[in-house]
């Protein structure tokens, strides 16, 4: 079901001497619900495989420990069929949520056809043909929807320094935030 348990990580943890919990707490809080580039969405800590020696550096009263661990990671397979809930509709397509992951888009060309966007209702409508004629089936917010994963996109969202073009620009326009991990999906024929 697109969940991988063996995503391995290693991280140097800095823990202050006062009020420090166990190392697993630091790893859990720091890494859960983060996207690891080309790996997937970290859901939770699975286990700690190794704790290395702790060091205290001059001028710093905290201990520094290298921790090796495994995470439970959400990374669906291509062609995997998932069930989510419609989060909303826009001219871009149908936005779907799994509850813990919201960056799923069904573009218009991947919906069951013929489909049209109803501007007044802000929903996509599938024009279902029967012997009695066409029926409009609305894709309302909150309804379950079955979809097939056809592609994924990882975007490196690591912070970068300002470019020379940004430094000379006087406009105060905020940069558009991109999702670090997005699934491109197609509406499954049934459901």
TrEMBL record:
Pfam families: RNA_pol_Rbc25
InterPro entries: NA-bd_OB-fold, RNA_pol_III_Rbc25, RNA_pol_Rpb7-like_N_sf, Rpb7-like
Domain RNA polymerase III subunit Rpc25 stretches: 80-183
CC per GO annotation: RNA polymerase III complex
Region named Disordered: 154-191
Assigned keywords, A-Z: DNA-directed RNA polymerase, Nucleus, Transcription
Function: DNA-dependent RNA polymerase which catalyzes the transcription of DNA into RNA using the four ribonucleoside triphosphates as substrates.
Protein name according to UniProt: DNA-directed RNA polymerase subunit
Originating organism: Neovison vison
Classification of source organism: Eukaryota, Metazoa, Chordata, Craniata, Vertebrata
Gene transcribed to yield this protein: POLR3H
């Amino acid at each position: 079901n697109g969940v991988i348990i063996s995503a391995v990580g290693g991280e140097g943890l800095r823990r202050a001497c006062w009020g420090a919990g166990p190392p697993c707490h630091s790893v859990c809080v720091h890494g859960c619900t983060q996207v690891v580039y080309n790996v997937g969405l970290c859901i939770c800590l699975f286990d700690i495989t190794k704790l290395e020696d702790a060091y205290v550096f001059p001028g710093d009263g905290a201990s520094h420990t290298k921790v090796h661990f495994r995470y439970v990671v959400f990374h669906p397979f291509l062609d995997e069929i998932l069930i989510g809930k419609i989060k909303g509709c826009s001219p871009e397509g149908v936005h779907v949520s799994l509850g813990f992951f919201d960056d799923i888009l069904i573009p218009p060309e991947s919906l069951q056809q013929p489909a049209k966007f109803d501007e007044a209702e802000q929903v996509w409508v599938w024009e279902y043909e029967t012997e009695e004629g066409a029926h409009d089936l609305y894709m309302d917010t909150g309804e379950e929807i079955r979809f097939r994963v056809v592609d994924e996109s990882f975007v490196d969202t690591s912070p970068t320094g300002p470019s020379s073009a940004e430094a000379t620009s006087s406009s105060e326009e905020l940069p558009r935030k991109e999702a670090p991990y997005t699934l491109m999906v197609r509406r499954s024929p049934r459901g």
